[in-house]
Amino acid sequence: MSMRILPSLESWRRVALCAALAGSLSFAAGHDARASVSIAITFDGLVRSSSAVVIGTPVEQVSVWEAGRIYSYSRLHVDSPIAGELRGDDEVWVRTMGGIAGGVGQIVEGEAALAVGRPTLLFMFRSPEGPYVVTGRAQGQFGLYTDDQKQLRVRKSVGVGALLPPKGAEASAQPAGDVMAGRAVTEAAKDIATAWGRTRAL
User: Fold this and answer.
1) Average pLDDT by consecutive 10-residue portion of the chain (202 residues)?
2) What is the pLDDT of residue 52?
3) How far apart are CA 187 and CA 189, in angstroms?
4) Who's near 176: CB < 8 A, 6+ residues apart?
């Protein structure tokens, strides 16, 4: 696995502009809300379970019925690779639960929610079926925002649902969302790249 840090300040400026201009997503339809309780994933656990970490922008999305549920497939353009197997300008399909298909909408609590045109930081792994899946569901997705100094920062997902503390050897570690939230993207990218090498050397 290769390890990469975001390439240039200009890349960050383009992502910041997209984050600032992206419109809000409207999800209007009936929905199937499911309560979600998950074990919180630690930062190292999130990195270790992923095959790619990127900042990407969904450019297309289609939702379909599969086995009685709605799944959404988002074509993700990789704006800036951070670590792993994907490179800048790659485009991959990401599969998430929920969406609107045939006039019916389903919202799945605890699931990542991708919006066309809205840049996001994603920890992902490739599923056996082919598309990528967000690691830890909503815990592996982080929004982006610009602060008052025009610096791009990381926002913790609000859709994670209820989280129980980590268990076992990682019981004392902070959940990944707490580690990442509010960080400057440049700093977070460096920490991800460092953790990528550390967790794969174990």
Assistant:
1) 42 45 36 63 94 98 95 98 97 96 91 96 94 96 95 88 75 86 96 93 70
2) 97
3) 5
4) 40, 41, 42, 43, 45, 46, 136, 139, 140
Report the run of H or E that residue 104 belongs to, with start and end: strand 104-106
How high is the pLDDT of residue 33?
43
Give CA 99 to chain center in angstroms.
Answer: 17
- Phi then psi dihedrals of residue 35, to 5 deg: -65, 145
Residue labelled with tokens 């297309």: 60
Predicted confidence at residue 200, as pLDDT, reads 85
Bridge partners, residue 73, by sequence: 62, 95
Q: Measure CA of the first residue to CA of the last residue in the chain; give whole Å.
A: 14
Q: What are phi and psi of 85, to 5 degrees?
A: -90, -5
What per-residue confidence (pLDDT) applies to 164? 78
Give the tokens for residue 131.
Answer: 């598309």
Burial environment of residue 52 by CB neighbours within 10 A (0 to 12, 13 to 18, 19 or more):
buried
Q: How far is CA 175 from CA 25, 39, 133, 167, 192, in A?
A: 27, 9, 20, 11, 14
